[in-house]
Amino acid sequence: MAAMLQPQIILLKEGTDTSQGKAQLVSNINACTAVADVVRTTLGPRGMDKLIHDDKGNVTISNDGATIMKLLDIFHPAAKILVDIAKSQDSEVGDGTTTVVLLAGEFLKEAKPFVEDGVHPQNLIRSYRTACYLAIEKIKELAVSIEGKSLEEKKSLLAKCAATTLSSKLIGGEKDFFASMVVDAVIAIGNDDRLNMIGIKKVPGGNMRDSFLVNGVAFKKTFSYAGFEQQPKKFLNPKILLLNIELELKSEKENAEIRLSDPSQYQSIVDAEWNIIYDKLDKCVKSGAKVVLSRLAIGDLATQYFADRDIFCAGRVAEEDLQRVAAATGGTVQTSVNNIIDEVLGTCEVFEEKQVGNERFNIFSGCPSGRTATIVLRGGADQFIEEAERSLHDAIMIVRRALKNSTVVAGGGAIDMEISRYLRQHARTIAGKSQLFINSYAKALEVIPRQLCDNAGFDATDVLNKLRQKHALPSGEGASYGVDINTGGIADSFANFVWEPSVVKSNAINAATEAACLILSVDETVKNPKSESAQGEAAASAMAGRGRGRGRGMRRR
Ligand code: ADP
Ligand code: MG
């Protein structure tokens, strides 16, 4: 078809490359399948991790689909869509990023033979959309609500969701320990939508189990001046003053230009400067605060002044930490020391400076207004702690989602098998080609349990057959059976508490279908010669790198 379209009129610049139709579609599908193959092995509790390093020597070890996709410098225009859906799944629900890429890849793979046989993509797209709609409705039907339970019950249910998320990560061995920590942190911030109210502080060294949750705020000790050692390091129920001003002598000196005619006046100017700062410090002391924090510097003079009066101070506190102290202790950040009334001071049960590993930490615990929590993470290598942080982020998102939407479905491939069965059954009622397409869609969903088996080294065909049989039971009692990751057989995922919030699944299925349909609807890519040469080079180097296994297709920064 393309050959017949030789234009008589020159429409595009010479050298412009356009490929069209079926060939284009098939090549796009191949690219997406290749991308899905990259993340394939990371799925599930027995999934492997990827080590990604760039030219600068930055090394990242990750199991998280979105992180891997972000770090791979994918330049294929169609395959980029998969990167985007992984990212959007990450920001929308926080988990299920590998799932979404795998599903999209599999939908396309199933569509490929049809495309090659000359089926018009629009027919496929229509059937896929119908199937997606049916699948989402089925998820809604199967979802189990955790609403109306007591706090304790809810906590243990949420911890199970968090444990399912964590089981596929590096810290999976300690999933119960971290799951309950995550649940406590999320419950502490209550309905607050700001995710940064849960701080995660990383302190390399020590054991994972040394990680702990502070019901309040913790941050690394800031830079301090002489006199700091004499300050008390622990208070019970202190008043806390939060400032956004500099308590240093030099500030006035640098802000003004003064012309003097008589040298003796100089002393009075110097005195005035000292008076100003002493006045400020005096006002801080008079406010009754025992802990003074400032976003800006607190100099040596001030440090000593506070030390003499048994007050603790810390300057250059990070904005984020200061905001969290404000939220937790009920204080407000002041931009002036005049008129400090009691209401603007915060308080907490215990303030303490503590040694954590090699670092000193300022810890505010037992905060009256709650609303913040800090997880202090310990562990070996930097890469390890960073991956641990990403994993906790996933778990935090999942618990928040589950708390908000409060419905869960059975994981371990159970929900996917059940939808697959339902779609196959439904397809039988449809006449025409659409039946085949919906069947393919149903088959594609099986990729999740199949991959879970493959990654764990089980016989996928065997397990899948058992699962199909179980799900086909007319009584519907097998609906929550999924892969049993411990024995290599099948088990009731729901009874084993392998749970996932239903939004993770519905969002993943929705996004994957949309991406697949989008790619199926493209039949032509036009590259202009300029960008083509740039991309061509990148392509060549990436291919060469891949061939020799040097990973040069990675992002360069
Ligand atoms: P994603 O990035 O998509 O969340 P994961 O690597 O976290 O990928 O794997 C999630 C999959 O692993 C889900 O389908 C989930 O149901 C499954 N899973 C998690 N824990 C278990 C378990 N203990 N047994 C069986 N399947 C599990
Ligand atoms: Mg996950």
Write the topology of this structure.
Elements: E1 17-20, H1 21-40, E2 50-53, E3 59-62, H2 65-71, H3 80-92, H4 97-116, H5 121-142, E4 144-145, H6 151-166, H7 175-189, E5 198-204, E6 212-214, E7 216-220, E8 234-236, E9 239-243, H8 250-255, H9 265-286, E10 291-294, H10 300-308, E11 312-314, H11 319-329, E12 333-334, E13 346-347, E14 350-356, E15 359-365, E16 373-379, H12 382-405, E17 407-410, H13 414-427, H14 434-445, H15 447-456, H16 460-471, E18 481-483, E19 490-492, E20 499-501, H17 502-520, E21 524-527, H18 529-548
Parallel strand pairs: 5-16, 9-10, 9-12, 10-11
Antiparallel strand pairs: 1-21, 2-3, 4-17, 6-16, 7-15, 8-14, 9-13, 14-15, 17-20, 18-19
Question: What this model shows, in words?
Answer:
The strands form 7 sheets. Strands 9, 10, 11, 12 and 13 form a 5-stranded mixed beta sheet that branches. A 4-stranded antiparallel beta sheet has the order 7-15-14-8. Helix 5 crosses helix 13, helix 6 (151-166) packs across helix 7 (175-189) and helix 15 crosses helix 16. It has 3 domains: 17-145 and 410-524, GroEL-like equatorial domain (GROEL, domain 1), CATH 1.10.560; 151-215 and 376-405, GROEL, domain 2; 217-252 and 268-369, 3-Layer(bba) Sandwich (GroEL), CATH 3.50.7. A hairpin with a 5-residue loop joins strand 2 (50-53) and strand 3. It has 557 residues and is α+β, with helices and mostly antiparallel strands. It is built from 18 helices and 21 strands. Residues 95, 165, 168, 394 line the site of magnesium ion (MG).
